[in-house]
Amino acid sequence: MRLSQYFMPILRDDPKEAEIVSHKLMLRCGMIRQEAAGSYSWLPLGLRVLRKIEQIVREEQNRAGALEVLMPTIQPADLWRKSGRYDAYGKEMLRIKDRHDRDMLYGPTNEEMITDIFRQGVQSYKELPRNLYHIQWKFRDEVRPRFGVMRGREFLMKDAYSFDLTREAGQHSYNKMFVSYLKTFARMGLKAVPMRAETGPIGGKDSHEFLILADTGESEVFLDSTFHDMDWSTFEIDYDNVDAVAKVVDEFTSKYAATSEMHDQADYEKRVPADRRVTGRGIEVGHIFFFGTKYSEPLGAVVQGPDGKMVPVQSGSYGIGVSRLVGGIIEASHDEAGIIWPEPVAPFKVGLINLKVGDADTDAACEKLYKALETRGVDVLYDDRDERAGAKFGTMDLIGLPWQVIIGPRGLKDGIAEVKNRKTGERENVAIDQLVARFAT
Ligand code: P5A
After folding, report:
1. Dihedral angle sign, alpha carbons of residues 61, 67, 68, 72
2. Alpha carbons 249 and 264: distance in angstroms, whole number
3. Nearest alpha-carbon partner for 5 in 370, 326, 404
4. 70, 172, 384, 439: which has the fewest C-beta neighbours closer than 10 Å?
5. Measuring CA to CA, which residue among 311, 326, 265 is closest to residue 40?
6. pLDDT value, residue 238
7. How far are the Cα atoms of 9, 23, 170, 278 from residue 133, in angstroms, in the given order?
8. What is the pLDDT of residues 92-129, one digit of tens each?
9. How far is CA 27 from the centre of its chain?
10. Helix ranges restricted to H, 301-388
């Protein structure tokens, strides 16, 4: 992409309405624009990040055996009356009437609808287990939408729903999602610590939240510092191996980690030596629930078991805040100059800076490299604008692409470009004809 042809409305100053760094930076980089309280348009740069996060989530859900579907955002109220949540959800639910005066709602979550889809599609235990998920916009009329995409009213969620015959089988489905979450967040450069959680309006018996540590997080957290030494990403897992999956869950749940709602100071002091106690704040990026037959019973999702009897299925639901993650990653990875994108979620991998637009040789060298990188499928943002070098460096640091390639007349005489690593700040000179091989991996 050529910056001269892009839509990236950069703000020079910090927007007054933003209280936390991720919200400030997202507005300053022109990633999003606020349309109403807690509701945002995603502009090209922001949308690229959102899509990359979504794709990582999708790949890891598929790997764990979940099947992608897509349900509508607007739901009929009937199913919610059956589950008893139409009234229970209160003011957080946006209620709508259609032209026939039928009650509709903008979905805050999809337990009812997916349970009904399952009910119609599966009759026998032989078709179990199943896990269906979608990545869809939700609306919750939050009392206090704030911090940009972190607590929005309209936000993008991945929500998965598992269906099993027995409690034990349901536990395995829960464990698979638990492990897939560790892998999903690790791929984005995050350590999301699982903590036992309350179930709130989703309900159920068992629940874990996944939190990343950040000063601006909404929850207070207490944890054992040895979490840092765990293997978060490189472990291989066979999702069909019940014991292996349970073992990973045990390893991660045996250490103390709790949000203030679940925190037990005496237990904490008993289990964690003083020098390993870490208190701080956390951002909830995922939340999983096991609720058994809470929805299958009222909605009639029953299957025929091996003994011929009809039984309600055992279910859980599993959420990831896809749009919240964009802000969460920025909270976890930035400096005074701007964002530092972990490569897997970066909007572009390389920012190419032409230091002297109008100089025939520099233009030609940049043009050639730009096209070669594009041809090899490397996401590159080419700053081909006629601007001061300082402004170009500032913009690149602000938007935080992992690599900057700087080409100017001086280096060009020797066939050299400067390559800067945004995260470490390290710079090195690299022969221009080696750059394609270096970035096209
Ligand atoms: C699990 C999937 C549920 O809704 N039903 C389907 C269950 N869980 S949850 O904890 O309420 O939400 C799941 C994740 O969505 C993100 N999230 C939000 N993101 C931005 N703005 C909001 N207002 C918001 N509310 C929830 C969180 O990451 C949460 O973990």
Report:
1. negative
2. 21
3. 370
4. 70
5. 326
6. 97
7. 34, 28, 16, 34
8. 999 999 999 999 999 999 999 999 999 999 999 999 99
9. 19
10. 322-332, 360-375
The first and second tokens of residue 194, run together, are 């699982």
Q: Name the maximum alpha-carbon separation found in the chain.
A: 81
pLDDT at 233: 79
Tens-place pLDDT, residues 378-391: 999 999 999 999 99
For ligand 1, whether the C-beta of 142 sits within 6 Å is: yes
pLDDT mean over 188-197: 93
List Cβ neighbours of 274 (8 Å cut-off, separation of 6 or more): none
Contacts of 419-422 with CB under 8 Å at 24 or more apart are 422/340, 422/341, 422/396, 422/397
Residue 243 CB coordination number (10 Å): 8
* Cα 383 to Cα 400: distance, rounded to the nearest angstrom: 14
Task: State in Å: Cα 200 to ligand 1 middle.
Answer: 11
Please tell me if the CB atom of residue 108 comes closer than 6 angstroms to any atom of ligand 1. no
Atom of ligand 1 nearest to the CA of 157: 15
**Global pTM?**
0.97
Residue 248 Cα to ligand 1 middle (Å): 24
Q: Is 189 in the pocket of ligand 1 (CB under 6 A)?
A: no
Our mutation pick for probing the ligand 1 site, out of 324, 325, 329, 331, counting the most ligand atoms within 8 A of Cβ, is 324
For residue 263 the two structure tokens come to 């925190």
Cβ(109) – ligand 1 distance below 6 Å: yes
CA 193 to chain centre: 14
Determine how β-strand 350-354 pairs with β-strand 403-407: parallel
170: closest CA among 294, 308, 319, 320?
Answer: 294
- Rounded average pLDDT over 199-210: 82
Cα distance between residue 14 and residue 12, in whole Å: 7
